[in-house]
Structure formats: structure tokens, C-alpha cells
Please model this.
Amino acid sequence: EVQLVESGGGLVQPGGSLKLSCRVSGYIGWWCELGWYRQTPGQEREMVSRISSGGTTYYADSVKGRFTISQDNTRGNLALQMDSLATEDTAVYYCSAYGKVWGQGTQVSVSS
Model:
């Protein structure tokens, strides 16, 4: 059973940076993409970024050039470096495996 635990959320001013981390435990297949999704109240959960086992990365257009996803060699740790944060980035951020296994989420709030 895959378990995901996020950390690193918080409150930051516009233009600031945060780094989210996700500890991945349990077996994940080589075909598994790890990723970050976010959700605001009343909205559907949306993909922010994904990374394949081979290191191929995908980003939502809204975060390209500002966010960077990474994973360690064991795929036991996933990270999301978020720079130039804007108020529109405020959301609960979820770590994901296979696009259907979720962590508990971590709140990111961008406000002056």
C-alpha cells in the first residue's frame, strides 16, 4: 500500500517561495507517475506537475517557469519548489501516485 505524507506548506507573501515535500512509502511501479495537484474550495482538483520514473516532467501552463518538481533516486521523496508565488496559487496541495492515491494535503496561502 502506497502512503504519501506532505509537508512544507504555509503562508508566504506574493513573489515569495516555498518548497513542498512528500514522503513516499510502499511499493510503486516503474510506470507510476508521482505528482502534485491542488484544490481550492468549490473547484475541482487540478494537476500542477507530474514526473515519471525516468524523470520526464509535466507542468500546468499556469506554473511553468515558476515551479520545479523533483524526486530522489529511490523515488521515496518528491518535492515541489515554488517560486514567484502569486495569490492565485493559494490552495491545498496534494501529493499523488498514479493520479489516484493521495496524501492528506498541505495548505499553501499566498497573501500580503
